[in-house]
Structure formats: C-alpha cells, structure tokens
Amino acid sequence: QHKQVTGVSSQGCQGGCQTCSVYNGCLTCKPKLFIHLERDGMRQFGVCLASCPNGFYGTRSPDRNDCIKCGSECDSCFNRNFCLRCRAGSYLHKGKCTESCPDGLVPSDTMKECV
Amino acid sequence: AMIKVSLLKQEPTSRPITLEGVFAGGSAGYAEGKLMQSHPLSLCNTSEDDRQETFFISIVKLESPESKVPQCLPLLDKARLALQRGAQAVIFDITDDPGAAQELRDSGLLPRPVVLVKSSDAEQLMGLVNKNEEAKVFIDIMMETQKWPHYDVGI
C-alpha cells in the first residue's frame, strides 16, 4: 500500500532519509517524502515514505511532512475529520464512523457504511 | 537518580543493572514501568503516539543540533506531553545534546519523574532498546552515603 523508499544511502540511512541515527532511524526525509514513526516492540523509529500507510494521513508543512494517525475507529482517512473507511463494527456516514446509523439509513456490514 | 533495570526475559536470580541519571528540575521521585522508546518527533503536538496498555517509561534519544531534527516543542513541553500520554516517567538520553540539561534545569513542577542520562548509562539503556530486549525500569532517588554516619556535627 505504501511505497517504501528502500536502499541505504552513504550515511547508512534508509534510502529516503535526509538525516538519520542508529537509535531513532530517520530524523529528516528527502523533499516530498513523509516521515512515519513505526513501532516495533520497544523501539520507535522513523522511516521515509512516498505516501502514508493505512490508518494514517499525510500533512505537509515547510519544515517536514508527517504521517498522522486517523481517528480511532477509522481505517483509512483523508484527514483527521474525514474518514474514508471504518473499522469493523463502525459504519461510515458523512465522513464519520458511528456505531449506529441515523433514521432512514441502515448499516451495511459489507461496505461498513450507512446506506 | 538511581535507575535499576531488570530484563523481563532473564533468570529470576540474575541481578538488575544499576545506572545513574539526574532528575530534571523538581521532578525527583519514584517510578517504575516497561521501557519504551519514543522518537523525538513523536512528542510534537501534531503527532500522536500509540497508547500503551501497561505501565511504561518513555526513553527519548535526543539528537545533536547538527542533525536538524525539527524541534516542534521545547523539551519541557515534550516531557509534559509524554507524561500526559501516560508515561510513568521520561528518560532523556542527552549524550549528543548537552544543551538539553540547561534547558530542563529549572523545569519547576513536573507531575512525575524526568531523568537525564548520558554516556555509558545512556548507552546501556539505548542498547537494550535497540535489541528490543524487554526491560522493566525502576527509578528512585539515590541515597547519598553519609560520609559521617555516626556524627551529626562535622568540623
């Protein structure tokens, strides 16, 4: 789903990193790439991606591009307030995930939407 | 500060590792929890770290100013943010960021301990993290051994 820029640069960083360190992984990314903080057990380290993974959305700012987590019930989102696909047990209605649908609509488990 | 570290997957008889650090400002106190690394960029207002279920202690490896990691928040606010997210304490490895100690020196009241470590003490902690060796950390105030235990007046 996300295009990970692989390979290792001269500085020993993951391909997309601008700067990195042994313990923190990527610290800054090359232009246009997003920094995503991955957790592996105790460790949390930065990786640089062309697009953010499922459950995260990308934000761009002058000094860095971040992957930010979607809302708690959301599997894939456009931004913090606009979900595109909900997790099991929730139904999408007007960009929000709800446990029940408003009057006149019924929950569709296959589409995870109020229809 | 005294930091005792015991590996979760080790012989019950093996002794914990004892390390030293310095409490930031007025944050001296006791804390215990599972050691969990936080990337410096995870402690920014925009980011949100994944909630841990267990009691955990965050360790943050601060990078040298030359590595140009966006600061996003002052160190004291980063410490407060980590504590707000449920960390029982925060450990900053300041080996590569000597200015951090100055920045955190008069940090006034903090709800739970914030400890600065460096050099070999920091290296041992970060070594555990890097090898993903699950460890439980106990932080406490180090008792100064009294030079004159039998006397209460020295000349």
Automatic annotation (TrEMBL), chain A:
Species the sequence originates in: Carassius auratus
Top-level lineage group: Eukaryota
The UniProt record lists the keyword GTP-binding: no
Protein name, UniProt field: R-spondin-3
GO molecular function: heparin binding
Residues of the R-spondin Fu-CRD domain: 15-114
Recorded family membership: Belongs to the R-spondin family.
Record GO biological process: Wnt signaling pathway
GO cellular component term, pick one: extracellular region
